Amino acid sequence: MKRLFISQPMKGKTDEEILEVRERAIESAKQRLGEDVEMIDSFFEGAPHDASPLWYLAKSLEMLSTADIAYFAKGWEDARGCKIENECAIAYGIDVVEDYSNAEEIGMNFGVALDLLKKGCRVAREGWNGKGMFVVYQKGYPDGIPCNEQTAKAWGMNEGDLFKCNPYLQIRQVDGSHSMWVPSIGDVLAEDWVVVG
Fold first, then answer.
1. Contact at 8 Å (CB) between 57 and 84?
2. With respect to CATH, is domain 2-98 assigned 3.40.190.10?
3. The pTM is what?
4. Where are the domains of the chain?
5. Considering 5, 66, 121, 194, which has the largest number of Cβ atoms within 10 A of its Cβ?
6. pLDDT tens digits for range 14-52
7. What is the DSSP pairing of strand 69-72 with strand 2-7?
8. Averaged pLDDT, 78-102
């Protein structure tokens, strides 16, 4: 079972709010990994009465070092300790899930949207008329995957040959189908991008 570390802003939060975020983190990690996870208990009890923020961060990093996956809760990007934990997780190859539900609801440009896409968010434009449409970033297959019959035939390859694919963007259409997607000039210049659930 994979071990889950949860990084979350705690200042001004009630115990109930903290625990609610932890439940959401566990579900998100299970979905990402396709298996149950064991939560690393990083809710400190019995800390020295004069413990500094740096003391807490040192203890957190020690726990992070034992994790397989780290979940960064809503607002993490504005919390000093969470940002340091995020940098360490990425630098040392720990799988990361980042909650960007704090992202601007309106006025987000395509540059910001693209950064969020690369971090695993789904984005859409407020100006799109189609209900349920959104864009995702696909990491591709730089090492290749075996061709199925349809792909092999289309590319003049043999079934089972390695098919290498660079990263690309994909859109969910109104009818639920998916297509590769390239933004129009209107999409690139728009400032109505939003993060969708």
1. yes
2. no
3. 0.55
4. 2-98, 110-196
5. 5
6. 878 888 888 888 887 787 777 888 989 877 666 777 888
7. parallel
8. 84
